[in-house]
Amino acid sequence: MKYTSFFKLFLFAFICVLMAASCTTKEGPMGANGLNGENGENGINGIDGKDGTDGKDGVDGNVSCLVCHTQAGMDALRALYNYSGHNAGETTSYAGGRASCSPCHSNELFLNSLNQAEGVAAVNIAYPTRISCSTCHANHQSLEDDISAPMTTVAPVTAIADATVTLDFGNASNLCANCHQSRRGYQYYQAIDSVKINGIMTKVPDGMVAINSSHAGPHHGPQANTLLGDGAMITGTIATHTSVGCTGCHMGTVDGATGGHSFKPSLANCNKCHSGATDFNINGKRTAFDERLEAIAEALVTAGALGKDEDTGEYHPAVSIVTDAEFEAFWHYMYLYEDHSHGAHNPPHFENLLTSAETALGL
């Protein structure tokens, strides 16, 4: 009995030891992962394109600039410009500061006038500077190959003397036309009803016209008008020289102190059309023009329309009242004289004006 109980106890203890031993045994290896779920299929990648051909290298920026902006080149331009009337300081000193004069006699007011809002009056300026490079030339808009000198304006110009007229050469000569045009038309003088003569206000009779100032006339450079046949009391024709404009003759071939930025026509440039010419008196036409204009001036002195400075031999308008015919001759004289081309700018038109003046004065 006792023995049986002891045996049962021993067996129980042995089973417990075995169970404890089995609980401390290490885990076996992890089983394999299950299969992933299916995703949608990706598209097939496209084939890479071929590399493009390398572009051609551009010209070195300095090469483009140095077409014009070498020290030697700029010095040559400045040397020519020194011969130009545009470089004359006196034209700025006596007129450049006045509002009515400065748009053509100073760098500042010329540029201001190009950008001035309509109806805004010009103003006097204290320290005007002369016409210079920046008056005519603007900044480059780009620096690509084949760049040319940029201009401040090449737009057609509304005539000052007659707003119904457009001065247009279709090229850079339009820049010149801003200033080289009449400031007054003959209609201004025909509308004067009284004028002060010897301190006395005098009424202008019918059929007569007043010359009210020693500065009367187109004042003072009507070249754009004469080239286009505008501004005289007789409608003019367009001359052969009109097609080349101002720059074609005045900035052509450089020859010594003429041509280029001197703005003085060079004989070498004229020879392109007038081959064999040895001076500007081609076929004696300049001499003939000057002689006829001188005879008209003397007749206008007799009529009282002009005065003559005996020391210099120069003529100037005289304050007076003259007949319609005498005024027409006076106006055409001033128009031709102040053109300063000695008949070259528009020969057919000038021939008609000379004949008209001679007929009016009985020459």
Automatic annotation (TrEMBL):
GO cellular component: periplasmic space
Location of the Cytochrome c domain: 254-338
PROSITE patterns attached to this UniProt entry: CYTC, PROKAR_LIPOPROTEIN
Region annotated Disordered, chain positions: 34-53
InterPro entries noted in UniProt: Cyt_c-like_dom (IPR009056), Cyt_c552 (IPR003321), Multihaem_cyt_sf (IPR036280), Multiheme_Cytochr_ET (IPR051829)
One GO MF term: nitrite reductase (cytochrome, ammonia-forming) activity
Bias-annotated ranges (Low complexity): 34-47
Keyword annotations of the record: Heme, Iron, Metal-binding, Signal
Leader sequence residues: 1-20
Domain of life: Bacteria
Protein name stated in the entry: Ammonia-forming cytochrome c nitrite reductase subunit c552
Organism: Draconibacterium aestuarii
